[in-house]
Automatic annotation (TrEMBL):
One of its GO terms (cellular component) is plasma membrane. The chain crosses the membrane at residues 21-37, 49-70, 82-98, 110-132, 144-162, 174-193. The gene is yciB. It is found in: Cell inner membrane. It is a multi-pass membrane protein. It comes from Pontibaca methylaminivorans. It comes from the Bacteria. Pfam families: IspA. This is Inner membrane-spanning protein YciB. Belongs to the YciB family. The lineage of its organism: Bacteria, Pseudomonadati, Pseudomonadota, Alphaproteobacteria, Rhodobacterales. The keyword Cell membrane applies.
Length: 209
């Protein structure tokens, strides 16, 4: 069978459902592990670790395996996925090494803060770097991208500040729930709202603009 007959499975062909499972599965597994282990403590090499830290360490290979499968099946990973993986490894490792859960909690602040910073740099240059990574999935005129980028930059900055306030002032239980469900829900609702609000800027198929 030749490679060009289109019947051979090749990278880039991945079902949307499997893609969502590989992207959303690791955070959900972290949540399940945390709920399962949160009331226990574990001793390794003479050091006692909380259930949160054990769940954090277990999350690292789960995330890396999911990303490896996603890359193998789709042939690509977004810059955001790579950055998130690097931060999870670094801050998850620091959490375990120093036996301090604060490092893993700060990881979320850094992810949101970096996103706000990158979008802000693009805006200062008169560009929408968001359009650079999303234009194919969401065809829209430049004016629309600039509006969405400004708003999303602000939302990421607010989420970064919100996470810092949150992890410093609430229980680990509540922080894990907000991290797993609250922040993704906020972003989902915000993006859905913006897609509806920016319909006048959308490029319809067949539009020559």
């Amino acid at each position: 069978m030749t490679q060009g007959d289109g019947s051979e499975e090749r990278p880039g062909k991945i079902s949307p459902v499997l893609k969502q499972v590989l992207e959303l599965g690791p955070p959900l597994l972290f949540f399940v592990l945390y709920i399962w282990l949160r009331d226990e403590s574990y001793v390794f090499a003479g050091t006692e670790y909380s259930g949160f830290i054990v769940a954090t360490v277990a999350f690292i290979p789960i995330l890396l395996l999911a990303m490896a499968l996603l890359w193998r099946l789709s042939g690509t990973l977004s810059r955001m996925q790579i950055l998130t993986a690097v931060l999870v490894v670094v801050f998850g490792g620091l959490t375990a090494w120093l036996n301090d859960e604060r490092f893993f909690k700060m990881k979320t602040t850094i992810v949101f803060g970096l996103m706000a910073l990158l979008l802000g740099i693009g805006l200062l240059r008169g560009q929408s770097w968001l359009a650079y990574v999303m234009a194919e999935a969401l065809p829209m005129r430049r004016e629309g991208w600039m509006i969405l980028t400004r708003r999303l930059c602000l939302v990421f900055a607010l989420l970064a500040v919100g996470n810092e306030v949150l992890w410093r002032s609430v229980s680990t239980d509540l922080w894990v729930k907000v991290e797993t469900f609250g922040f993704p829900l906020i972003l989902f609702v915000f993006l859905w709202w913006q897609i509806m609000a920016l319909q006048p800027y959308m490029i319809e198929s067949g539009d020559d603009t």
